[in-house]
Write a structure and sequence with these properties.
35% helix, single chain, alpha/beta, 11-stranded mixed beta sheet
């Protein structure tokens, strides 16, 4: 069911300054902030695990895709406006992780009555996209992972740095340097915006307990087994930046090419971990072509 947010219409929906509709959706385990635009075949966009990130990171891609697709971007529990509801899933050190976030997205698909959709995930969101496709093979028509986690690998040093983030101006600048190759994404304004996002009270509290050391266990937690990956039948597109320092190409996409049954890959040269930001027009064309294939 929908829950009103600040400045919302009586039905619980508000329109953001970018023209994207936003509402809160309550399911058994969570209150999920959902951003939505467009009409047509449904595409669910799942964000990554960077501090301060939320479904709003997809806004430029949503605007580009909206003329041809119904695009839906939820916040994972613990990010943005979303939160776990009191109960077993919200207690203890396993409050977050693959099981909890997969259940959140599956419940959301049910609440939105999405019996057929494509799922696109960035980084951690890619791991949950793979997990959802494994759990609901009849629901997920197509699948895309961008700089994705979801396969067992040693903890990359860049991911360790990202998950160890504690708010501060220098740390926010370091985070942007880690994510982006292009210096245009590391301006003073961008640093202040990222810092402000990581200081939001709800996400700040959640992120502080989300990936405690030893962090290798969270990579393992997000990884599907070779058997699980081999049972994913949805046609899958993998996209990766060759200069990704958070989830290295050779640890992720190059391995998944041998594990997923129906898979293809596209590489962006001189691109880091944030391909949706660094290559928005090319990514839009790539995804649209893939999603509209017969």
């Amino acid at each position: 069911m929908s829950i009103p947010v600040g400045g919302a219409r009586p039905d619980g929906t508000r329109t953001t300054h970018t023209g994207i509709e936003e509402r809160m959706v309550r399911t058994a385990g969570s209150e999920t902030c959902v951003r939505e635009a467009g009409s047509g075949p449904a595409v669910v966009l799942l964000h990554g695990s960077g501090p301060g990130v939320s479904g709003a990171a997809w806004d430029p891609l949503m605007a580009a895709m909206a003329p041809r697709f119904r695009v839906i971007a939820p916040d994972f529990a613990g990010f943005g406006r979303s939160r776990l509801l009191p109960g077993p899933a919200a207690d203890g050190e396993h409050s977050y992780g693959r099981r909890v976030w997969t259940a959140q997205i599956l419940e959301l698909l049910d609440e939105l009555a999405l019996d057929r959709c494509a799922v696109v995930g960035n980084s951690m969101g890619g791991a949950i996209a793979l997990s959802v496709a494994h759990a609901r093979p009849r629901t997920v028509a197509r699948l895309a992972g961008i700089g994705t986690l979801g396969v067992d690998m040693p903890l990359p040093p860049g991911l360790d740095r990202l998950w160890a983030y504690r708010p501060g101006r220098a740390a926010a600048r370091g985070l942007l340097e880690l994510l982006h190759v292009d210096e245009a994404f590391r301006t003073a304004e961008a640093v202040e915006a990222r810092l402000a996002a990581t200081l939001e009270p709800g996400p700040l509290e959640a992120f502080a307990v989300m990936f405690p050391p030893p962090r290798e266990r969270w990579v393992r937690d997000l990884a599907l087994t070779a058997g699980e990956l081999g049972r994913i039948r949805a046609p899958t597109l993998l996209v990766h930046g060759t200069e990704d320092r958070v989830v290295p190409l050779e640890s992720s996409t190059l391995r998944l090419l041998h594990l997923l049954p129906d898979v293809r890959a596209h590489l962006f040269g001189a691109c880091g971990h944030a391909a949706p930001a660094e290559r928005p027009a090319e990514l839009h064309r790539l995804l649209t072509t893939f999603l509209e294939e017969p």
